[in-house]
Amino acid sequence: MCDKTSRTLVRAMPRVVVPGKSDPLHIPHRSRHVPPDAWCDYPQPIPPAWTELAARRGFRIARRVRDRYHVVLECLSCGAHTAVKVFTVRDAAVRCGGCAARAREQNAQGAGLTFLRRDPESRHYGYFRAPCGHTVRRQFELIQRVRDGKTGLRCSVCLVAREQDEARAHGWDRIGPDPVGNANYRHYRHPCGHVQRIARGNMQHGQCDCARCGESWSSKPSTIYLARISLPGLAGDVIKFGYSAHPHKRFKHQLGLPKSTRVRFLRLLDMPSGHAACAAEKAANACLARNHPDLVVPQAIYGGLINVRSEIYWPALRPVIAAEMDRISRQTSAS
Question: Among 75, 84, 78, 79, which Cα is nearest to 39's?
Fold first, then answer.
């Protein structure tokens, strides 16, 4: 009935056209498999007690249908007809299918959309026409949130077109979503034929370079390194796992190490490009931090001694890092 909340109302019931009846009949969701001609009149009287119960809930029993367990309720507010089981009138909150359908359409209009049809595969979804003219499939609850200004709604077709225009503006071609599944990345192809993952934000601002034919750090050869560091004031050594085109230069000029610091490179792994080194190193460090948090050196220990905020571990993690570098080496050789 129309005094229900809009969250309940948008869960509208399917409708059928019963042969010989002019008004559509809203039926329970679980009865959508029943053919329309099965909802014909059931020729039995309506007990007065049922009429009184229906009136208390804002309905009038129009007729009995299908079998001795079902009745058709006419909403005293909107006049729509809804088929329900008799026990629903007695024991449950009765919901008017017409009021629910009206609230669903009002929610769509309030969100700037046009409701087209329900999704036959899921009662939580419907199809809507967006202002751009494209058809979108969205949850009814999401449409209500859009109407209330709690979130936005974008057309996936228009989004792909915008991303394609962004890519072409910088000489790339968008070929699909990120193959790894990261929502912030897309898959692009450079005119040289090279295919590459690039963050959409970087593509929007033109901060992207081909890892094959470009001239920036991302396309030039790089190195993944594992170094042991002896810092003044620390009782024990730490190790750093990272990447750089010039590892020795990075430790000498870029990390802000004290002059008395001793650095020994335990392993250097050549990579074909900075892009490949960055991707492999970031994924490996994320895995190490997630699986071995007890061997991650807290920043408070080395803060002010090394100009970094992560990638510093205790030496006990060295065998695990060596295994990661072996894996990266095999993967790079295979590709």
Answer: 84
Domain boundaries defined on the chain: 6-99, 156-204, 222-334
Beta strands in the chain (DSSP E): 15-16, 25-26, 59-65, 70-75, 81-85, 114-118, 125-129, 135-139, 173-177, 185-189, 195-199, 222-230, 238-244, 262-271, 312-313
List the Cα angle 123/73/91 in 5-degree steps.
Answer: 75
Cβ 188 vs Cβ 194: under 8 Å: no
Return all residues near 263 (Cβ < 8 A) that are at least 6 apart. Answer: 227, 228, 229, 230, 251, 257
pLDDT digits over 275-329, tens only? 899 999 999 999 999 999 999 999 888 888 898 888 999 999 999 999 999 999 9
> Structure pTM?
0.55
**Token pair recorded at residue 291:** 């699986």
Token pair of 40 as six digits = 């014909």
**pLDDT tens for residues 88-138?**
888 777 888 888 888 889 999 999 999 998 888 888 899 999 999 999 999
